[in-house]
Design goal:
The complex is a heterodimer of chains A (about 300) and B (about 240). Chain A is mainly α. Chain A is built from eleven helices and four strands; from the N terminus they run H-H-H-H-E-E-E-H-H-H-H-E-H-H-H. The chains are: A mainly alpha (about 300), B alpha/beta (about 240). At the A-B interface, helix 6 and helix 7 of A face helix 2, strand 6 and helix 3 of B.
Chain lengths: ~300, ~240
């Protein structure tokens, strides 16, 4: 029984990080209709910035703050200097569908090379903001640590902040309206291109947090966030790619599910487990768990 | 007079010409009905006037200032509001959010709230459904909401694209009555695009009949209604 409980707790911590990555992908998908594979690179670059700041200042949180800012600036930059230009030139035919995806993959490679040249390929580790030693209950130590608590709490705070932003502010309304119905949003006076860039910035900042939190318990390298991208993407698909709430729920389902596989079956099956979930969702409920079984628009 | 002036406007979709040398004007506070069958170019006309579509030649002015080549967000700020075809509301948002959207470009939220209160006074049914998602509204209510959203921006020029589309006859009657009532009350200049020729011309001051992208007749609405040749050829009754 205790093992089940531990597994759920660790799953929540893992799911939190997936949730952030998944949200970053959904935010961009909703506004731009692009699955942004470069998000792994953007988050990784932001994490390197966070690593630099936190190792110099020895304060994790200062690093996190800089990672958010770096992620947001990079996200906005990618949309403004890269996607806008791309959409202007590849705006019809098969190229319009394929080009953005290829472009984000190319961008991922570009960021990776840049980071490799700047920081080298060796593993870095980040100042940990809290102990990674598990809590002790009675006379046994569980694998759930203060760092895990911190990851969950930080994620919860970010989710609350995002919920307030999207549900309670004009900017949030503009972001939602531009995603659901760009033309109506435009006719309502929203500067949709600018709004989209802000959406990319938010996604970039959230991706930066995901990178920092996952690295707090791990090592950083130009490839270290690739798996996070894959699991974030699977979580987003579970949630239907459109829904931010769906992305978060999908992430927790996946995080807890994979931790069960890890604890009860073995490490080797985690990756296969993730893809099995992805394939099952695509077969059984391709619109994601949030779909109500009807078209989005009448 | 410096209402809406459209002069020699031509628009094309790629190689296909959608509008050719369209010229007409609407005086301030007047309602012009733009009549024509499917594919005549009516929707293209409104999309060009609201900045969604680029013109290939000609010009258009509102209150003496050029409209073409401007983005929709800029034109909204100049008092031009376009209610696009097909009950243009965002079903994923609540009724309230759809209305707030109409004033979202304003820095001042209390101004928007006051405008929403006025719209709710005009359409009390919307007031009862503020918290519901727009998805749950009937077709007529959605059209009211679409018009209501445009009114929240306190427009001076309202571009309405087929507000009767897909509605039951009784509801259509209500919509036209509402349009007539509110444009007098608010002193709006209106361009009303319609296939429903008779109902539109009945509340219009002037009419413009478009066929295959060209203006075939224009003038006082009452004259157009009574012209037997036009009635037979374009008005369908």
């Amino acid at each position: 029984m205790q093992k089940v409980f531990e597994t759920i707790l660790i799953g929540l911590s893992t799911g939190s990080i997936y949730a952030l990555m998944s949200l970053a992908l959904v935010l961009v998908w909703r506004s731009t209709r692009v699955v942004n594979f470069a998000q792994a690179g953007q988050a990784m670059f932001s994490t390197y910035i966070g690593f630099e700041i936190s190792s110099r200042s020895e304060v994790f949180w200062l690093g996190l703050l800089f990672a958010i800012v770096a992620g947001a600036l990079l996200g906005a930059g990618v949309d403004y200097f890269f996607m806008r230009v791309l959409f202007k030139h590849a705006n019809s035919g098969p190229a319009a569908v394929v080009a953005p995806v290829i472009a984000t993959l190319g961008l991922l490679g570009l960021i990776r090379s840049f980071v490799g040249l700047t920081w080298g390929g060796e593993f870095k580790s980040i100042e940990t903001p809290a102990s990674t030693n598990g809590f002790t209950i009675g006379d046994s130590t569980i694998p759930f640590s203060p760092l895990n608590v911190l990851i969950i709490v930080t994620t919860a705070l970010i989710l609350i902040a995002l919920a307030i932003l999207f549900q309670r502010t004009n900017l949030g309304l503009a972001l939602r309206a531009s995603a659901y119905a760009p033309e109506i949003a435009q006719l309502a006076g929203i500067r949709t291109a600018r709004t989209r860039t802000i959406g990319w910035a938010i996604a970039g900042g959230v991706g930066g947090v995901a990178g920092m939190l996952v690295t707090a318990n791990n090592f950083l390298s130009p490839y270290s966030l690739d798996l996070l991208l894959v699991f974030g993407f699977i979580a987003a698909v579970i949630g239907g790619l459109e829904s931010m709430v769906g992305a978060v729920i999908g992430a927790f389902v996946l995080g807890i599910g994979l931790t069960f596989i890890l604890n009860y079956v073995g490490t080797s099956l985690v990756f296969i487990g993730g893809f099995t979930v992805l394939i099952l969702v695509l077969i059984i409920k391709p619109d994601g768990i949030m779909s109500r079984g009807k078209a989005r628009r009448a | 007079m410096s209402g809406l002036l459209v002069n020699n406007l031509s628009v094309s979709h790629g190689a296909i010409s959608a509008l050719r040398n369209v010229t007409f004007s609407v005086e301030p506070g007047q309602l012009a009905a733009v009549i024509g069958s499917n594919g005549a170019g009516k929707t293209t006309l409104l999309r060009t006037l609201s900045g969604l579509k680029d013109a290939s030649s000609g010009n258009a002015e509102w209150e003496g200032r050029a409209m073409l080549g401007k983005k929709p967000d800029e034109l909204v700020r100049r008092g031009i509001s376009h209610v696009s075809e097909g009950k243009s509301v965002i079903p994923e948002l609540t009724v309230k959010e759809n209305l707030v959207l109409g004033g979202i470009w304003r820095a001042n939220r209390s101004d928007t709230n006051a405008a929403i209160a006025e719209v709710v006074e005009l359409f009390p049914r919307l007031g009862e459904r503020m918290g519901q998602s727009a998805d749950t509204l009937s077709g007529g209510e959605r059209q009211m909401l679409a018009i209501g959203r445009a009114l929240v921006s306190r427009p001076k020029l309202l571009l309405l694209d087929e507000p009767s589309l897909g509605l039951a006859p009784l509801v259509i009657e209500q919509i036209f009555e509402t349009i007539d009532k509110l444009r007098h009350k608010l002193g709006l200049t209106v361009v009303l695009v319609e296939q429903n020729a008779m109902s539109a011309l009945e509340i219009a001051d002037t009419g413009v009949i478009i066929n295959l992208g060209e203006v075939v007749a224009s003038g006082k609405a009452s004259d157009l209604i009574n012209d037997p040749a036009l009635r037979a050829a374009y008005l369908g009754y």
